[in-house]
Structures are given as structure tokens and as C-alpha cells.
Design goal:
The chain is 30% helix and 26% strand. The protein is α+β, with helices and mostly antiparallel strands. The chain has two domains: 121 residues, no CATH class; 49 residues, no CATH class. Strands 1, 2, 3, 4, 5 and 6 form a six-stranded mixed beta sheet that branches. A hairpin with a 5-residue loop joins strand 2 and strand 3. The radius of gyration is 20 Å and the shape is elongated. It starts with a helix and ends with a helix.
Length: 181
């Protein structure tokens, strides 16, 4: 049996306390990495900003690299693969990524400068639905007094949030349908 298929994904909104060996070394925990998630966890992180920072590479030299800072997690070095994924979700301008949420997961990637496969962070190519994002639309739906208003309000909800709000929409639809008869 494939062990990956048996893993149930659990969304978390803060990096997990893990017993990964990297957590034994404070300099290894300054940046977000695969060691911050337990098996089967995916982190929904809100982007604060992106900037170029100088960090020490594994070879010991200083490199200027793009780093994404989060509101709810340590900063993460932004590689080209992850930058492309974010730009596909939120546009080419990284200034436009501020305040947006991404969903991080761990997968095996080709080692940095080696042929070895190691765990690495990747970003799902989908906008995560967060409770915070949905709350404004809950208020909008609940304020509707006609079926037409409800339809217009639900149509304006971003696609990635609709699955979380369909139940509320359906119950309001029944309630408004009964009062409008």
C-alpha cells in the first residue's frame, strides 16, 4: 500500500512543534522549512511581505535571496518554483502578494546542488479558504433580505471560498424562500 495515500491532510495555521533534528539547532529554525510540519500537515500562511535578504548558504558564503515573511510563521527562502506558484495565484507583482494566504506542504524535491531527494516545502496551486477570509462573506450573506440579494451576494464570493459557504447559502435560501412566498 502507498503510505502517501494513507496520510490524511490536516491544515494548521501555525508551524508545529516537531521533534525533527533541525529543531536541536537554533540557527536551523530561523527560517521555515519542512522540519516545521508533522507528517500529513499543511500550513496555511499569510504573506506579510517579500524582500531580498542576505543569508549564509550551506557553503558558508553570504547570498542575497528573496525571502517571504509571514504573519503566522517564520520567514521562508523563496525559490523560483514557489515564486511561480504564488505569482500564478496572485499575479506577477510581489507587492500584490501582501495579505494573501498560501498553503504549504512537504514533498520530496531534488536536493540543493545534489541528486538526492530530500523533503522540501512547496506551495499548493490553489488559494486556501481560511475562516478569516470567509467571515466577511458570512456577514454579507446573512444581511440579505431577498432571494435576489442572496444570489447576487453569493455570486460575488471568490470561487475558493464558495464550498465553505454553500451550506449557509442553502439554509438562507430556504428561509428567504419561505418568507417571500
Amino acid at each position: 500500500m502507498n503510505n502517501v495515500a494513507a496520510i490524511k491532510t490536516e491544515l494548521v495555521y501555525q508551524p508545529s512543534a516537531t521533534t525533527h533534528w533541525k529543531n536541536l539547532f537554533p540557527n536551523k529554525t530561523m527560517l521555515l522549512g519542512s522540519h516545521n510540519l508533522n507528517e500529513g500537515e499543511e500550513l496555511v500562511a499569510k504573506i506579510r511581505h517579500v524582500e531580498i535578504q542576505q543569508i549564509k548558504s550551506s557553503s558558508g558564503k553570504n547570498d542575497n535571496v528573496p525571502v517571504v515573511a509571514f504573519e503566522n510563521a517564520p520567514p521562508m527562502v523563496l525559490n523560483i518554483t514557489n515564486a511561480r506558484t504564488i505569482s500564478g495565484l496572485y499575479g506577477e507583482s510581489y507587492d500584490g502578494w501582501r495579505g494573501q494566504s498560501i498553503q504549504l506542504y512537504v514533498t520530496l524535491v531534488r536536493g540543493f546542488g545534489t541528486k538526492e531527494m530530500i523533503p522540501g516545502l512547496r506551495i499548493r496551486n490553489t488559494i486556501p479558504a481560511t475562516v478569516e477570509d470567509s467571515q466577511a462573506y458570512v456577514t454579507s450573506l446573512e444581511s440579505c433580505s431577498t432571494l435576489q440579494e442572496l444570489q447576487k451576494a453569493f455570486t460575488s464570493i471568490p470561487k475558493h471560498l464558495k464550498p465553505n459557504l454553500t451550506g449557509l447559502k442553502d439554509s438562507l435560501k430556504q428561509k428567504l424562500g419561505a418568507t417571500n412566498v
